[in-house]
């Protein structure tokens, strides 16, 4: 596949675009959480997560309607070019110490465009590889994109460690992300305008009717789930609750990294602690991918999903209530395992139990629930978590929610047939 010029160019555009996303997201975290000029609160984190995730939730299900009407190469070219301009504007707002709502508004536009670009990259793959290579392309391209996003986060983290903390450092990070967006735009411009499709059609529904039909089809997917597919409903409920608990704990770790484990004035040390925690959690996600097949063969998919919630109910209070760096790192590792293990099980149950006709719509609903649960967790945590992140009540509450999820899901799975 890499010998194919068009695939290489599309892959280059993806890698550069997602590399830019990683740098941009670190710049957001640096400004919102670790800026020495401001006292970050859980409410600030909730605002940041809303900027990062809500566009995926609101726009995501409808992005395909527009992508089937616009030339995808133009979406990649002009979308990244617009993000370049918005990135420069965002950096200027940081330097000018503009009102926060202006900064978040510009950042929200950057992440909203990302939804179209990622969907366009996936939709364009069949135009640049042969049918027999599509499975390999779908494995290679998103994986390299994820690696690029993580690498971008690492680059942003290293730049943040080198620069003196302050608005200038945050503006430099955003500007670096903007320049990378420009490189992604130029990479897309090397492709022919019509290469990535879609083919010109004259039988499209009017846009307002197409959007209304999409909403109607999503509603039909919900009805199918509720009426005919109880295993998928139970799995989606369990993974949504797990994602909510994970969101609460992420906000807690962010506050601990800034105010408890380090001097609040030392944003560099706080960022370093957070970076280590994220890295350890990523190892947990990888371990989940390794051990989940073995666990599901012995416990069954519902059994492993139940075990993940039950295990979290035990180790979250046992380790988290110590409020020390070492136990927190171990918690992050185990949390990565059970969170990703839960998602692997939920993905499998939805794929196995939902009819093919409805599967795409159900996964769109899944995506919305997954992101909204994380944002809702941050919003709820903002109301109850103290600034330093030390709250035994919050950790015990999360453990009880995990335990209740394990009990209710385990009971539902035993009473429900394994397929629709």
Order of helices and strands: HHHHHHHHHHHHH
How would you sum up the major sheet?
none
The overall strand count is 0
Helix segment tally: 13
Q: What's the structural domain tally?
A: 2
Second rung of CATH, namely the architecture of the largest domain: Up-down Bundle
Shape: globular
**Class from secondary-structure proportions:** mainly alpha
CATH topology of the largest domain: Growth Hormone, Chain: A
What are the low-pLDDT stretches, counting only 5+ consecutive residues below 50?
Answer: none
Q: For the terminal residues, how far apart are their CA atoms?
A: 38 Å
Indicate the CATH class of the largest domain.
Mainly Alpha
* Beta fraction: under 5%
Radius of gyration: 22 Å
Percent of residues in helices: over 70%
CATH superfamily of the largest domain: MFS general substrate transporter like domains
